[in-house]
Specification:
heterotrimer; A alpha/beta; B alpha/beta; C mainly alpha; A: alpha/beta; Rossmann fold; six-stranded parallel β-sheet; six-stranded mixed β-sheet; globular; disordered N terminus; C: mainly alpha; about 70% helix; disordered C terminus; BMP family ABC transporter substrate-binding protein (chain A)
Chain lengths: ~350, ~525, ~375
C-alpha cells in the first residue's frame, strides 16, 4: 500500500517535471525572441517579474497588496509572471542578483516591492536600459527606465486619524510605527493632523518599534504587542499601526485590552489572517499598492511606460480608508467631508 | 572503581573483625551428585587482536556460589558477556542444564534462565520498585492494560521466598544502595532467572551492606539458584564462594577450592608470578627539606576541610598520608598544587615560599603531580600520547620553543617515556583513551618524572591498574626516591602506604592526628588509627 | 570518554578517510530528504538539482558564492575558536554588527586617506569586536554568567547601540535608507577578476579569509596558546591541574573570537556597500555557528561548509524561478547540519572501537603471547 502511494507520488512528480520542462522550454524560446523595450506585440508575450520584500506573498500587508495587483494583471492583461522573494538579512548584492536574474531571464517589466530595493534597483536598471522597472514606495532610485510608485500615505492616515479621534472616548489615541524612517513619518504626520483636526487637544502617544538600520520593527509581532499594550494601559483606546508584519501584535493587544486598532496597507479586517481580531479593527488605511502595480503593468503593456514619480493620493484613489465591519457607518459623512477637502486642496496634510 | 587496588591480600578496615566465621554451610548442603548448571568448554573469543577469551573451561555446579576471579582486564567481563548473550563466542560450547545453547541476544540468555546484575544499577529513580521491575516486560491484561496487581503479587512472592525484603511500592530514590542492588536482583529473578551473574557486586557497597548481600546470596543458593560471582576482591571471594575459577590473560588457569587456598596464593594465581611487594629497603632520607608546609588551613573557619596541617618532606623521603577518603587529603594535594585557595598557612619548596604561586609556576619549579583521577585530571583522553606528554609541561623544553609547540621534541620525548616506562602502545599517535589503565598511568608517571622534579605528589598512584603496572610504578617511585626525590604519597592501599613510606601521618577531619612509624605498624593498626579509634602505634 | 556534545562541537577529531566520509554521507542524506520533500510537494527533484547545478556553474554565480562564502567563513572561524574550548559564543552576531557600525562610522569620517583608512577601519572593527566579546568573557569569569545567556543579550544590546550610533552620529538619510556616510572611494578594497566570463569580481577579502584560516590553524595547532585552548576544551579539569588557568583562557578566547568576529563585516563594508545601512547583512553570526558545526571546526572543513552554505543561500532565487518555495533551501541546510552531526556520531563510535582494536592488535601481534594487556580502559 505504501509502495503504491510512493509510486503514485513519483508519477505525480515525474508529471510535474515534464510540465515544468515544457514550461521551461517555452520560456527560453520567448526569451530569445523577446525584444525588450519595444512595444509588446501581444499582451500574452509579456513576462512580468516581481521581486517582493521580506515576507513575500501572504504577508497580510504590503507584499500581499502588490500580489493582488499582479494577479489582476495576470487575469485581465493575460501576462505571465514570476515572483521572487527576499530573505531576511540579505545584502544589497543579493537583491541586485535577484533583479538581474529576472532581467536576464527576459522578464520585462519588473516590479520591485519596497524601498529596500532602492539602491540595488538603481544599479541594475542602469545595466538593463531596455527593461522597464517600477519600484514601490521609493523615489530615490531614479532613471529613464524607472517608474517610482509612491503614495500619499499622509492623506489616508489623516482620515483614519480623524476616525480615531471621533471614535475615541478617552481623547487618547496611539500610533505604532514599524521602523523610524521617513516613509513611516508620513503615516504618523497624517494621523496626528487628522486626529487634531477633529479634537485639537487630543492626546497622541507615539512609538517606533525599531530604529534604522535595524529593520526588525517590520517583522516582530511581539514588539508590536508590547508597544500597543503600553499605550492601552496608559489610557489610549484607539491605536493606529503602520508596522507591517508587527501589526498583528497590535491587534492582539487591542483585543486583550478591549481597545480598538486601525490597520494599514490592506483592508486588514477583511483578511483571513486577522479574522480572529477583526472586531477590534476599526478601519484600515488602505494603500492601494495593487492599483499602482496594476496601473503600471497596464500602461506598460499598452506601450505607455513613463518614467519618474507617480504619486497615488486620495484624488487618484491610491489611498483610502476601509469600511469593512461597519464600525465607521455613523461617522462616514464626516470622514468623507475631510476626504473631499483634501482632494479639493482645502486641507493640506503635512508629511512630517 | 572503589578501592580496586589490585589484589588486596589482607583485610583492611572494611573487613569484619577477626573471628567472623566464613560461612560455608551452603557449600556443604548441595555439594555432591549434581550436573553442572552451566558448562563452558573451549570458549574462544577473538576481537581483532584483543585478549578476550581463549579455551575457557568452566563448570558451575547447580546451587552454588561460583566465583570468577582475575585481574582487571583478564577477560572476566568478556566471558560474562558471552554467557549473557551480549557477545557470541568464535569457538566453544555453552551448555545450560546439560544441553548446548547458542545466545544471540541477552533475551536468549534470559529465556534460558540466565540473568545479569550489572555493576552499575539501571534503575529509574523517580519510579517505584514495581514499575522499575516490570519495565520492559510489562504484564498485560487482555493484551492491552497493564496488570500491576499480578506483578505486585509476584514481586512479593519472590521477595518473601528469597528473603530480599523488597517493598514494591517504594520509590527507588528513597532506597539505599544495598536495597537498590536487591531490586536489581529481584528484577532478574522476576524475569525467571535461575542462574545469576553478579558483576563486581560489592564495588558500590559499604562493609555491612556486603555482609547483607552475602546473606542474600546464600539464601538464593539455598533455594536452588546458581550464582556466578565476579570479583577481584579476594577476601570477599574467599568469604562467600563455594568454588573459585581463576582467569588470567583470557583463559582459565585454575579451579580451586576456597577452603584450601590462601588469599596470597590466589593472588599469585591471578598474576601468574610471585606477588610484587611495595617494600622499600633501606632509607634514602637526607637532611635537606624539599617541601615544608606550615599551619595550612582551608575552608571557612569552623568548617575547615584542612585544619592546621604542617609537615616537612626531605629529599629522598616518601611521606605517606593515611586517612579515610574525604578527610582533607584531596584538598591538601590541591592546595600544594595551587589549584585551590587556602585560608592561611605557608608552603615552601626548596626554601622558596610558593604559597602564592600559580599552579604553572609551581610545576615549573619542580612539582610533579600524579592525580587521583587520571581521566579527569591527568589526561586528554581524546588526544594522542605525545600531546598528553605536553600537558602540564607546556612551558618547558622539549615540548615548546618560545610560543611554538615543538612537535618533534615532544614526540621524541614521548618515545623516550614509552620505552623507559614500558608503556605498551603501538605508537605515540594513538589516543590516550585507547590504552589500558595501567599503561595510561605509566605514561603519567613517566611524564611527571620528566624535567627533574623536586617533589612528586602521588595521589593513589596505582589505583585501578593491573598488578604488573603496579609493580612497575612502585619501582619507579623507589628509584626516584633513591635519586633524591621527595614524594608525598596519598593512598587508600594500606600495604602500599606502609611499604613505600619513610614516614606516615594520619589525617582525620582535616587534621594530622598521628605520626606512625611504617616499619612497625600493621595495616589493621593503621586502619583503626585512620578511623580515630586507636591513636598512634 | 568524550561527551556527545564534544563530538557535536568537533572538539574530537576524526582521522583519515572517515573525516571525509561523514560529511559526504550527510550531504547525500540531505539530498535524499530534500527529494522526498520535493516529491511530496509535487515537484521534480532532478529538475531542482539540475537547476541548482546549472546555477552554480555560471561564472557570475560562482563569484557571488565565493563572496558570500568569505563572510560565512570568517564568521565560522570566530565561532569555532570558542567551540574548540567549550565556549558557545552565540554573540558573534552582535560582535560583528557593532564592530561594522563603528568601523563604518570611523571609515566614513575619512580621518586618514586611502589605504590607511582601510587599515583603520579594520583595526577599529577588530578592537570593537574584541571588546564587545570581552564583556561576556568578563561576566563569565567574574560573575559566572553563562556566555550563552550573556551573548544573546549582548546581541540585542548591540542592535540598539548600532541604531543609536547611526541615528545620532553616523547616519545619512537617502530616501528611506538611513546609513552611515559612505567610505570614500580611495579606501575601497578592490575585487579581483579571478573568474572569467563575468564582470563581477571576487572580493579582495578572499585573501584575508585564507590568511585568517591559516592563522586559525597555526594558532590552535602549533602554538602553546592553542594547545592550552584545546586542552581546556577537552578537559577543563585536566587543564587546571596542568597549570592552565581556565579563567584566563575563557577571557582570552572570548576576546580572540570577538576580534575574529570584527572581520566578518569587512568584506561587505570595504568591498561592496561601503556603508552600514538597512541592507547590511544580519545574522551572519548564526550562519557561522551552523558552518562551524558542519565543518567540524577544521579550517578546510569550514571553508567547504561556507561555500556550500553560500551556494544554497544564493540559489533560492533560482528555485523560485521553478516555482519551488525558497524555504526548501532552509530545509536542506537544516538537514545537512543534522545529518552531519549524526553521521559524525556514527563514524566516531566506529573510530573509537576501531582504534582500540588496532591498538590491541598491534600490541598482540609482534610480541606474541608473552603479554596480554586488558581491554582498553
Amino acid at each position: 500500500m505504501l509502495r503504491n502511494r510512493v509510486s503514485k507520488l513519483a508519477a505525480a512528480g515525474a508529471a510535474g517535471a515534464m510540465v515544468m520542462a515544457v514550461a521551461a522550454c517555452g520560456g527560453s524560446d520567448s526569451n530569445t525572441s523577446a525584444t525588450p523595450g519595444a512595444s509588446a506585440p501581444a499582451a500574452s508575450a509579456v513576462k512580468v517579474g516581481l521581486a517582493y520584500d521580506v515576507g513575500g506573498r501572504g504577508d497580510g500587508s504590503f507584499n500581499d497588496a502588490a500580489a493582488a495587483g499582479l494577479d489582476k494583471a495576470v487575469s485581465e492583461l493575460k501576462v505571465t509572471s514570476k515572483e521572487l522573494e527576499a530573505t531576511q538579512g540579505e545584502t544589497d548584492t543579493q537583491k541586485e542578483e535577484r533583479l538581474r536574474l529576472l532581467a536576464q531571464g527576459g522578464y520585462n517589466p519588473i516590479v520591485a516591492v519596497g524601498f529596500a530595493y532602492s539602491g540595488s534597483l538603481a544599479k541594475v536598471a542602469k545595466e538593463f536600459p531596455d527593461t522597464h522597472f517600477a519600484i514601490v514606495d521609493d523615489d530615490a532610485a531614479t532613471g529613464a527606465n524607472i517608474d517610482n510608485l509612491v503614495f500619499a500615505e499622509e492623506q489616508g492616515s489623516f482620515l483614519v486619524g480623524a476616525a480615531a479621534a471621533l471614535k475615541s472616548k478617552k481623547g487618547d489615541v496611539g500610533f505604532v510605527g514599524g521602523v523610524d524612517v521617513p516613509l513611516i513619518h508620513k503615516f504618523q504626520a497624517g494621523f496626528e493632523a487628522g486626529a487634531k483636526a477633529v479634537k485639537p487637544d487630543i492626546k497622541i502617544q507615539t512609538k517606533y518599534l525599531s530604529q534604522p538600520p535595524d529593520m526588525s520593527g517590520f517583522g516582530d509581532p511581539a514588539k508590536g504587542k508590547t508597544a500597543a499594550q503600553g499605550m492601552y494601559d496608559a489610557g489610549a483606546d484607539v491605536v493606529y499601526q503602520a508596522a507591517g508584519g508587527s501589526g498583528g501584535g497590535v491587534f492582539d493587544a487591542a483585543k486583550a485590552s478591549n481597545g480598538l486598532a486601525i490597520g494599514v496597507d490592506s483592508d486588514q479586517a477583511a483578511l483571513p489572517a486577522y479574522s480572529a481580531v477583526k472586531d477590534v479593527i476599526l478601519t484600515s488605511m488602505v494603500k492601494k499598492v495593487d492599483v499602482a502595480v496594476f496601473d503600471f503593468l497596464q500602461s506598460d503593456v499598452a506601450g505607455k511606460f513613463t518614467a519618474g514619480k507617480h504619486v497615488y493620493d486620495l484624488k487618484a484613489g491610491g489611498v483610502d480608508y476601509s469600511t469593512t465591519g461597519g464600525q465607521l457607518d455613523d461617522i462616514k459623512t464626516q470622514l468623507d467631508e475631510f476626504k473631499q477637502k483634501i482632494i479639493n486642496g482645502e486641507i493640506t496634510v503635512p508629511t512630517s | 572503581m572503589g578501592n580496586a587496588t589490585g589484589p588486596l591480600v589482607y583485610c583492611h578496615n572494611r573487613c569484619p573483625p577477626s573471628g567472623t566465621p566464613r560461612s560455608k554451610e551452603a557449600a556443604i548442603t548441595t555439594a555432591t551428585a549434581n550436573e553442572p548448571a552451566v558448562e563452558l568448554a573451549g570458549i574462544t573469543k577473538r576481537f581483532p587482536g584483543v585478549v578476550a577469551n581463549k579455551d575457557i573451561d568452566l563448570k558451575v555446579a547447580k546451587g552454588r556460589i561460583h566465583a570468577i576471579v582475575g585481574e582487571n582486564g583478564a577477560g572476566k567481563s568478556t566471558l560474562m558477556k558471552i554467557l549473557y548473550g551480549m557477545q557470541r563466542p568464535d569457538e566453544g560450547v555453552i551448555k545450560v542444564d546439560g544441553s548446548p545453547v547458542t545466545f544471540g541476544t541477552p533475551g536468549d540468555a534470559i529465556a534460558h534462565g540466565i540473568g545479569m546484575v550489572h555493576q552499575h544499577f539501571m534503575l529509574a529513580d523517580n519510579l517505584t520498585v514495581l514499575e522499575n521491575i516490570v519495565l520492559g516486560s510489562e504484564p498485560r491484561k487482555g493484551g492491552v492494560a497493564l496488570d500491576f496487581r499480578a506483578a505486585r503479587k509476584k514481586i512479593k512472592e519472590i521477595s518473601d521466598t528469597y528473603g530480599l525484603g523488597i517493598e514494591p511500592d517504594m520509590l527507588v530514590e528513597e532506597l539505599g544502595v544495598g536495597d537498590r542492588q536487591r531490586v536489581e536482583i529481584l528484577k532478574v529473578l522476576y524475569r525467571g532467572a535461575r542462574i545469576l551473574i553478579l558483576d563486581e557486586p560489592t564495588a558500590v557497597l559499604v562493609p555491612h551492606e556486603v555482609d547483607e548481600l552475602f546473606d542474600n546470596l546464600r539464601g538464593l543458593v539455598r533455594e536452588g539458584l546458581t550464582i556466578l560471582f565476579i570479583s577481584h576482591k579476594l577476601d570477599e571471594v574467599l568469604q562467600v564462594a563455594d568454588a573459585i575459577t581463576v582467569i588470567r590473560r583470557g583463559t582459565t588457569v585454575a579451579a580451586v577450592d576456597p577452603k584450601e587456598v590462601t588469599a596470597r596464593r590466589l593472588a599469585e594465581l591471578m598474576v601468574g608470578s610471585e606477588l610484587p611487594s611495595p617494600e622499600t629497603r633501606e632509607s634514602t632520607v637526607t637532611d635537606v627539606v624539599a617541601l615544608a608546609v606550615r599551619d595550612l588551613r582551608m575552608g571557612a573557619s569552623g568548617r575547615s576541610v584542612v585544619d592546621g596541617v604542617g609537615f616537612d618532606i626531605r629529599k629522598g623521603e616518601v611521606l605517606g598520608i593515611a586517612g579515610v577518603e574525604g578527610n582533607g587529603q584531596a584538598e591538601l594535594v590541591e592546595a600544594i598544587m595551587g589549584m585551590r585557595p587556602i585560608s592561611s598557612g605557608s608552603i615552601t619548596l626548596n626554601g622558596r615560599d610558593i604559597t602564592h604561586w600559580s599552579t604553572l609556576k609551581r610545576r615549573e619549579a619542580g612539582i610533579g603531580y600524579i592525580p587521583e583521577d587520571r581521566h579527569r585530571h591527568g589526561l586528554l583522553l581524546e588526544s594522542p600520547l605525545w600531546e598528553n606528554r605536553i600537558l602540564g609541561h607546556q612551558t618547558r623544553k622539549p615540548n615548546v620553543r618560545g610560543i611554538w609547540i615543538d612537535r618533534a621534541g615532544a614526540r621524541r620525548d614521548t618515545q623516550r617515556i614509552v620505552e623507559n616506562y614500558d608503556v605498551r602502545t603501538p605508537g605515540i599517535e594513538v589516543d590516550a583513551a585507547a590504552l589500558s589503565g595501567g599503561n595510561q598511568q605509566k605514561l603519567i608517571v613517566g611524564r611527571e618524572m620528566s624535567g627533574d622534579p623536586v617533589l612528586l605528589i602521588a595521589s593513589h598512584p596505582t589505583r585501578g591498574v593491573d598488578v604488573g603496572a603496579q609493580a612497575a610504578i612502585w619501582d619507579h617511585l623507589r628509584t626516584a626516591r633513591a635519586a633524591g626525590l621527595a614524594v608525598l604519597l596519598i593512598s587508600a592501599d594500606l600495604d602500599e602506604l606502609i611499604g613505600l613510606s619513610d614516614s606516615l601521618k594520619v589525617i582525620l577531619r582535616g587534621k594530622i592526628v598521628a605520626d606512625i612509624d611504617p616499619t612497625s605498624v600493621t595495616p589493621e593498626q593503621l586502619g583503626s588509627a585512620m578511623t580515630g579509634a586507636g591513636e598512634g602505634a | 570518554m568524550s561527551s556527545f556534545l564534544d563530538r557535536m562541537l568537533g572538539r574530537v577529531k576524526l582521522g583519515g578517510w572517515l573525516a571525509v566520509a561523514a560529511p559526504l554521507l550527510a550531504v547525500v542524506f540531505a539530498a535524499v530528504i530534500t527529494s522526498v520533500i520535493l516529491l511530496a510537494t509535487g515537484k521534480a527533484p532532478l529538475e531542482a538539482f539540475n537547476a541548482l547545478a546549472q546555477y552554480g556553474a555560471q561564472p557570475r554565480t560562482m563569484v557571488t558564492i565565493i563572496n558570500t562564502g568569505t563572510e560565512y567563513y570568517i564568521s565560522a572561524l570566530a565561532v569555532a575558536i570558542g567551540f574548540r574550548m567549550n565556549l558557545f559564543n552565540i554573540g558573534v552576531d552582535g560582535q560583528y554588527r557593532l564592530a561594522a557600525v563603528v568601523a563604518a562610522g570611523v571609515g566614513g569620517a575619512a580621518l586618514v586617506p586611502g589605504v590607511l583608512n582601510i587599515v583603520l577601519v579594520i583595526v577599529v572593527a577588530v578592537i570593537v569586536g574584541a571588546l564587545w566579546a570581552a564583556i561576556a568573557g568578563l561576566l563569565r569569569v567574574t560573575r559566572g554568567v553563562s556566555e550563552v545567556i550573556s551573548t544573546i543579550m549582548l546581541n540585542s544590546i548591540a542592535t540598539g547601540i548600532g541604531s543609536w550610533l547611526v541615528k545620532n552620529y553616523f547616519g545619512v538619510l537617502t530616501g528611506n535608507e538611513l546609513a552611515t556616510k559612505e567610505i570614500p572611494a580611495d579606501a575601497h578594497v578592490p575585487g579581483m577578476a579571478l573568474i572569467p566570463g563575468t564582470q563581477l569580481q571576487v572580493s579582495g577579502f578572499v585573501v584575508l579569509a585564507i590568511v585568517l584560516g591559516v592563522a586559525y590553524y597555526v594558532l590552535l595547532n602549533r602554538t602553546r596558546f592553542g594547545f592550552e585552548l584545546r586542552a581546556t576544551g577537552k578537559s577543563e579539569s585536566a587543564a587546571l591541574s596542568s597549570g592552565i588557568s581556565p579563567k584566563k583562557m575563557i577571557l582570552t578566547t572570548m576576546i580572540i573570537s570577538g576580534a575574529m568576529a570584527g572581520f566578518i563585516g569587512m568584506p561587505e563594508l570595504l568591498g561592496s556597500s561601503y556603508k552600514y545601512g538597512t541592507n547590511f547583512p544580519t545574522g551572519l553570526g548564526f550562519t557561522g555557528i551552523a558552518i562551524a558545526l558542519l565543518g567540524r571546526n577544521t579550517p578546510v572543513g569550514m571553508a567547504i561548509g561556507a561555500l556550500l552554505w553560500s551556494f544554497l543561500d544564493n540559489s533560492s532565487d533560482t528555485l523560485q524561478l521553478l516555482d519551488i518555495s525558497k524555504e526548501i533551501v532552509a530545509i536542506m541546510q537544516g538537514v545537512i547540519v543534522l545529518s552531519v552531526i549524526i553521521a559524525y556520531e556514527l563514524v566516531h563510535r566506529y573510530r573509537i572501537v576501531a582504534e582500540q582494536r588496532r591498538v590491541s592488535r598491534e600490541l598482540a601481534a609482534p610480541k606474541g603471547p608473552q603479554q596480554v594487556e586488558g581491554a582498553p580502559a
